């Protein structure tokens, strides 16, 4: 027998002795030593990892859904001339329409409440209807003062712009002082004519 074989035999014997000693100690305490290879129970971290992965996938899917659905609901800003140049492209979409109030076109009806006016940009004009009783104080037809308006709404089939919100650029204090010095009233002091009843 070679030296290496003798060493292996001694090692095997030591392992057998250690196992026998462990079995003897376990039998004294009332428990048995399992023989053969043992499989460790599944760690709870595997379940946690799967749950975390599922939650991340769900969150990612939700974010993608929000991003793509919000693209359909996005409000597109355009000007009067751009809208009239390609109105079919904007049909059925919510828009922010920018333009200047055409002098003398702002009218109001009390029953039912409605404002009608025209906006212009680059010599193009569009009729706007705003079915509301209240407008911003700065939304007034002031002689000698250009009123910049942003109307949010949709273009209808007849080519009118149906507004749901109106915003008007407020003149600066300096501009108002200059106009007042020239004898003009401030925008919130101006009166507007009632709109004529529309014939159906």
Task: Give a written overview of the molecule.
Strands 2-4-5-7-6 form a 5-stranded mixed barrel. The longest helix has 29 residues. The chain is rod-shaped and about 115 Å long. With 200 residues, it is α/β, with parallel strands linked by helices. The chain has a domain of 115 residues: OB fold (Dihydrolipoamide Acetyltransferase, E2P) (Beta Barrel).
Short account of what is shown:
The protein has helices at residues 3-29, 44-72, 80-85, 87-90, 173-181; strands at 76-79, 95-101, 107-109, 114-121, 124-130, 148-155, 161-168, 193-194. It has 200 residues and is an alpha/beta fold. Strand 4 (114-121) and strand 5 form a beta hairpin.
CATH 2nd-level architecture of the domain at 76-190: Beta Barrel
Give unreliable regions as ranges.
187-200
Biggest sheet: strand arrangement: 2-4-5-7-6
The count of helical stretches stands at 5
What's the number of extended β-strand segments? 8
Please name the CATH topology of the domain at 76-190.
OB fold (Dihydrolipoamide Acetyltransferase, E2P)
Helix content: 25-40%
The portion of residues forming beta strands comes to 15-25%
- Corresponding CATH superfamily of the domain at 76-190: Nucleic acid-binding proteins
Mean pLDDT: 75
